Amino acid sequence: MQCVDCVNEGARTVRHARTSAGAVVSNGRPIITQVMIALNVLAYVVTVFQSGSPMNNQRAGLFTATSMIPELTANGEWWRILTSGFMHFGLIHLALNMAALFVVGPVVEQELGKLRYSAVYFLSLLGGSAAAFYFGTVCQQLAGASGAVFGLMGALLIVFKRQKRDISTIVVIVGINLVSNLFTNASLLGHLGGFVIGGLLTLAMVKAPQKNRNLYQIGAVAVALLLLGGMFALRAAELDTAAELVLEYARTCR
């Protein structure tokens, strides 16, 4: 028999096993993944309610105000680079992304821990937006959690490689999805941007030396933020320089 205080005191002195990224090994619930799924589903339900259609919900006021439209984003509506990651074009788009997030998310969250996982998720989302915004045309309207989901696939690839596990299935799935983008309206740039940022950021996290690990990982996050911020700023300046041409081109897109 041991008193509660004795057990708690002993637990504080025990060194917990940690993952390659420095997270405490745990079998807890993937809270962040569940929250992200809930937020995406909630946003979809609101757009369906506003539009009156589960498949044409892009007509909803919330969707119009939060999806990423390059000309409006460059004109100061910067929230769109983040909020667009919670909008989806219809039920199938939502279901595919949430299914992938449900499968991949918990594995990556367990390896990275909640804080690092959140950083990878949101920076992958921004990476997808940045790639589509910087390299894409002003005609493209971007929405969906695909950038974040592909970022997590990139993260899972790094985690499995680090653990010396078979990565062939992940490579095939990512390859099929990227190739399919060539025959659909999906944003290839958005998917690639998320995949690259998620993979590189996770690589930096698992490769960080144990000594000052947190400092190295914070530095990696800061570098990613600066890179993505620079891409948004440069593209916005470019569009502002050719504002009249861009607006005319945007009108022809419609």
From TrEMBL:
What is this organism's lineage?
Bacteria, Bacillati, Actinomycetota, Actinomycetes, Pseudonocardiales
Which Pfam families does this chain map to?
A: Rhomboid (PF01694)
> What does the UniProt keyword field contain?
Hydrolase, Membrane, Protease, Transmembrane, Transmembrane helix
Protein's name in the database: Membrane associated serine protease, rhomboid family
UniProt-recorded Gene Ontology molecular function terms? serine-type endopeptidase activity
| Places the protein is found | Membrane
Record SUPFAM superfamilies: Rhomboid-like (SSF144091)
Give GO terms for biological process. Answer: proteolysis
